[in-house]
Amino acid sequence: MEVPGSSKKMIATQEEMVEAKVPLGYRDQCAHLLIPLNKCRQAEFYLPWKCENERHSYEKCEYELVMERMLQMQKLRQQQQQEESSRLGLNRRPIPLASNPANAAS
Q1: 10 Å Cβ neighbour count for 50?
Q2: How far is residue 41 CA from its own chain's centroid?
Q3: pLDDT at position 92, please?
Q4: Fewest Cβ atoms nearer than 10 Å: which of 39, 53, 62, 106?
Q5: What is the Cα–Cα distance from 105 to 75, expressed in whole angstroms?
Q6: pLDDT at 6
Q7: DSSP classification of residue 13
Q8: Which pLDDT value is given to residue 7?
Q9: Which stretches of the chain score pLDDT less than 50?
């Protein structure tokens, strides 16, 4: 389940994620950090001040994935704008206006 164009690799295998009962929506490149986080949460009865290191590393990984996707989307949009402008002929240089039009008063 590799994501094309992503710099992060899948570390957790499908078997590990199934065994840890990771929901389908969370099976991404950060799942290897979610598995120990969920184990810690269960062991600590979901107390919010526990498992801070695990949660921080998981959230940082997710943030990096989101930022990477945003950069990819921005590049895609710029590429589409360039293709559209070249298709419409907007990349041509504009015709310069005369510095002194014929009907302008001097």
Answers
A1: 14
A2: 27
A3: 62
A4: 106
A5: 48
A6: 80
A7: -
A8: 85
A9: none
Q: What are the tokens at 30?
A: 């950060």
d(CA 101, CA 89): 27
Q: What pLDDT does 93 receive?
A: 66
- Cβ burial of 12 (10 Å; 0-12, 13-18, 19+) is buried
Question: pTM for the complete prediction?
Answer: 0.77
List the alpha helices (DSSP H) in the chain.
Answer: 14-19, 31-43, 52-88
Amino acid at residue number 3 = V
Which one, of 75, 78, 84, 36, lies nearest residue 56 by Cα?
A: 36
Q: Which residue has the tokens 């001097």?
A: 106
Residue (of 50, 49, 60, 55) closest to 35 by Cα position: 55
Give the pLDDT confidence score for residue 2 in this predicted structure.
63
How many whole angstroms separate alpha carbon 105 and alpha carbon 48?
77
Domain boundaries, the chain: 1-77
